[in-house]
User: Which sequence fits this backbone?
């Protein structure tokens, strides 16, 4: 008997330890999953039921329920979707208008190389002239494009002068030459551009071009006034016929473009262009004399151009993947707890119970048996 009692005590101790561990574990779990906010007090009862025969004790019409703020888990990261942007690709047409500011490095004539002759340039300038260009190009991607252009560079008036000294009868003569004329070009060039990217709708770019230029000098005239070594003045006038020369030309571009429509861009660009050399016809004196073939050479023609251009693409755009972008998702939050309200006492309304008619159940009663014995005659 004592052995059975010991076994029962040991079993009871084991069950107690297990129950204690369960209680501690549940408390720890409850602490881990405790709500972030305390429970909101239940709402007050604003109305009670009227007593009746069936429910003589009034009860709350809207019974209170526990309203607790549940812990809100951190929202998952927003989904990422691929971003597809369009860029104009394929063939495009372009047109440019602008003006040029041109320079010449120096003038040269075969007479300058004779012994004893020195020439000192005084000043040489060109007037500004318009430029008109057309071209066709191809856009490879968002950064690289090329085009082929043909351009007419309008007539730019030239003015220049220099001071020449020459040997004369054992002395030195002095001559001041004043030059006038005009210059124009046809330029055909292949250009490549690199677009750096679009910032606030504006795309900066740089480019390089190479091709050929036909330089034409027209209406050249040399008016000279000088003195011989003995002080005698003289006048010299010479003319050069119209002449053209083809040269290798190259250009460097820089500018900004802005997309004004789905297929249309406008450009504001600067261009430095090297046009090579120009040449006049043979210089002939005003009296028609000419002892040597001596055309005037324009050495080192360059130009600083400012242009406004338009590019029109044949295609509206081709989709291109440009990365991922998070998608904004609506955020959800618990509604704020309702403000506490004062309980309103509603007096109970007594409703008399309605009479309930119950028909008595029929009771069947068997009639008492009547036993009559037949009369018997006696006797």
Assistant:
């Amino acid at each position: 008997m004592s052995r059975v009692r010991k076994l029962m005590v040991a079993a009871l101790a084991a069950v107690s330890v297990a129950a204690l561990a369960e209680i501690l574990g549940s408390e720890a779990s409850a602490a881990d999953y405790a709500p972030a906010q305390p429970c909101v007090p239940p709402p007050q009862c604003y109305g009670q039921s009227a007593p009746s025969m069936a429910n003589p004790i009034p009860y709350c019409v809207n019974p209170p329920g526990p309203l607790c703020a549940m812990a809100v888990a951190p929202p998952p990261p927003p989904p990422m979707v691929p971003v597809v942007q369009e860029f104009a690709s394929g063939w495009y047409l372009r047109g440019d208008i602008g003006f040029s500011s041109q320079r010449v490095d120096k003038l040269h004539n075969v007479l300058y190389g004779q012994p004893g002759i020195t020439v000192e340039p005084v000043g040489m300038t060109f007037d500004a002239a318009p430029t008109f260009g057309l071209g066709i190009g191809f856009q490879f991607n968002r950064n690289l494009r090329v085009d082929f252009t043909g351009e007419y560079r309008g007539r730019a008036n030239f003015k220049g002068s220099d001071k020449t000294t020459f040997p004369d009868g054992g002395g030195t003569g002095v001559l001041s030459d004043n030059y006038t004329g005009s210059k124009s070009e046809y330029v055909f060039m292949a250009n490549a551009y690199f677009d750096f990217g679009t910032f606030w709708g504006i795309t900066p770019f740089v480019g390089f071009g190479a091709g050929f230029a036909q330089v034409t000098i027209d209406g050249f005239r040399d008016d000279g006034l000088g003195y011989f070594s003995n002080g005698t003045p003289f006048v010299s006038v010479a003319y050069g016929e119209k002449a053209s020369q083809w040269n290798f030309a190259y250009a460097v571009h820089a500018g900004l473009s802005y997309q004004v429509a789905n297929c249309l861009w406008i450009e504001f660009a600067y261009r430095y262009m090297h046009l090579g050399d120009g040449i006049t016809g043979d210089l002939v004196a005003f009296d028609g004399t000419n002892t040597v073939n001596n055309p005037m050479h324009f050495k080192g023609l360059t130009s600083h151009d400012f242009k406004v251009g338009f590019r029109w693409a044949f295609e509206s755009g081709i989709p291109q993947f440009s990365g991922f972008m998070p998608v904004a998702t609506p955020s959800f939050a618990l509604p704020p707890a309702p403000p506490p309200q004062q309980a309103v006492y509603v007096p109970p309304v007594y409703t008399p119970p309605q009479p309930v008619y119950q028909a008595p159940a029929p009771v069947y009663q068997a009639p008492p048996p009547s036993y009559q014995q037949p009369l018997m005659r006696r006797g």
